[in-house]
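hey can u check if this looks right to u? its 541 residues, i copy pasted from the old doc so theres a chance i mangled smth
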Amino acid sequence: MRKLFVPPWHRLMVGELFPALEYRSVNRQLLPVWLLLGLGLGLRFANLLGKPVWLDEAFTLFHISGFQPQAAVTNLVTGLPVTVADLLQYQQPQVAHSLGQTIRNIAETAPELPPLYFALLHRWMQLFGGGVWAMRFLSAIISLAVFPTVYWLCIELFGLPIVGWYSMALIAVSPFHLNIAQEIRPYSLWSVCFLVASALFLRAQRRESWRDWVGFSGAVLVGMYTHLFMLLPWLIYWLHSLLRAKLQLTRAFKQFVVVNGFIVAGFIPWLWFGFLMPRGGREAVFAKPFDSSLGLIKGLMQGVGRFFVDFSLNETSPRWGLLLYGLCVLAVLGLAGYSLIYVARHGPRRTRSFIWLMGLLPISLFIVSDLLLNASRTSFTRYYTPSVIVIEIAIAYCMAAKQTFRFQSSAIKPRWEKRWLALLLVGTLSCGWFILMPTWWSKTKTAANLCIVETTSSAAASVIVTDEFYMRSLALAHQLKPTVAFQFYPLKSKTAPSLTPTVQSTFLYMPSPQFLKAMRGRYQLRSVCQPALWKVDAIKE
């Protein structure tokens, strides 16, 4: 009977740690993995233009332009017509603004977003243009590196290639990973940095090689300059090192402390420039409060579940659909909990603490901080991406073990094979639904953009009046015809401007309650894209 090929450098590890592993019938179990891996790779490049640019992507591109937020407000909020071409200047690199100016603006206005991804995207746009397809293509390319790096991390954790294959399959059909692979955001790059840093961390601990430790420090620094929350995995590296060394100064722990000195020294410039220098005008981050503790837990459960199954359901969806989705989420969460326990009981001793700490501690810190600060970071699934990646790896290990380990009863293996195929099936269906949908639940405020584009395009020339935050108009401008113009007014305006509405062309876009009341007092309004767009029909007599 054919055996699974194990690379020579892993055979010793497999033989020492996993004498109970059997390689029989692995080809049959890996066949759906290989098929879904190919499907997942292809889906990352499918329909890159299918979804409208949303608010976070518009923020990313605004930072690339090098404009100061206050300068944009001064130039735009004048009540004068602003063309689509004028708006898109705030979404492209400008000759007058260097990359250094872009980095300075990020440090002054959004220091929680380190500049590495923005610098990379800035250079990419200079080489390949600023089209939405080209910019999302960069994220799709970066996302491909997740597959070999998660395989590498699985080898370092378990020494089992089959776990690496199973993990790649889960990520290939994960709707969350597909989503971030098609966004102009840094989360795919952050995922790669985390996986590389974790693999090098475990390898350096095992081999006690300075070369591996130097590579680890470089990967952590790149991750920190990609996303500030790389500090959380870095904290886990410290805790795992302390537990592994049993609070003693072992050779590996001394090496770890030394290279972390370089990590701290390398990140101090951004901490100083972005956070410690006195500077005003920053906006509060994570200011949105949560509704209740129950709502916080519900958001967390949905967030973790959406890594595996997501059909973009919301409160307006049919009840039967919400019920089925809820059952799927509960099943996935139950499987995740069981897998973590299974790793704790049967996984290699040297990696159990890593799986548990990385999988649970960052999420727990988010929950505690949200309860203390009345914030809502837990609802943002992307913030604890490393934790759920580790949970995905734990599930992959459990599934592979249940189907291939000799000490497992032959009666239970078919049942676990069915559960494994069911998990892959719901992920595949979720990814297919994501590709087909014109927008997604996480971008609800852009859902009306499709209607707005169709409505404004039907007129020869349209004017859109708004007192909404200008960033939403920047996102909308990517889909509008060049003949459309905007007129911006201060936030929460209580005075209706003097307009000359025509039957064909004047619209009111996402007005504040105060501005809507003022406009209704002076003009006849008709809702055309509820609740985002009103048609200004005529002046009231």
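The two ends are 89 Å apart (CA to CA).
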